[in-house]
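ugh ok fine here u go
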Amino acid sequence: MSGVNWTGISAIYRFELARFRRTLLTGLLVPVITTTLYFIVFGSAIGSRMSEIDGTPYAAFIVPGLIMLSMFTESIFNASFGIYMPKFTGTIYELQSAPVSALEAVVAYVGAAATKSMSVGLVIFATAHLFVDVPVAHPAMMVGFMVLIAISFCLFGFILGIWAQSFEQLQVIPMLIIMPMTFLGGAFYSIHMLPEPWRSVTLFNPIVYLISGFRWTFFGRGDVAIQFSMAFIAGMLLLCIGVISWMFRTGYRLKK
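structure:
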């Protein structure tokens, strides 16, 4: 594709990945330890009392939720931190004056953050196989779903990084909104297990559609129809792209 500054995209992409490689051991070891603890607490303690959900062993049932839980937080953190640091250090103006378009900058930052998030997700998937046999009914769809989730939440994290004016603000939405919504979105249980009216109320949680869709790629069934899950991801992608486009067009919190 002519006119695209692949050199600039590659430079930003490699710079962001270099930061990830410097903390590679910690970045990959933490998900392994966290996954192990979740399996001990949820898989063993709760699984001993609730052996199956919809015909799926409970230990296997929670794997998609574990992967999504980590990918949500990793995607948001990596993307938001990646664009926030240039703002914090003042080097954002070098990026703005460089021969790199807004689209190319977003592709580089989001691409690097999504790569890190995918790496963590695959490490958790591999770690889960040490504890339980996890079938994958639709392998291609599973990978595609992971890519879409990573890109969507990295775009959201990119927006958060531009919006945030302090390190504290970077943590507010992931910790106080995304994390609780994930735990209440069916990561460790089926929403069909909830009594009314809570089952209906849960359907207003957007995370339900993401976790359900991802779980469908594993077991061929989810809490909501896969069409709704795909429609939500498409909507989120378009919304985030629209917001980022507006931010660069207006210079929102990119200029003093």
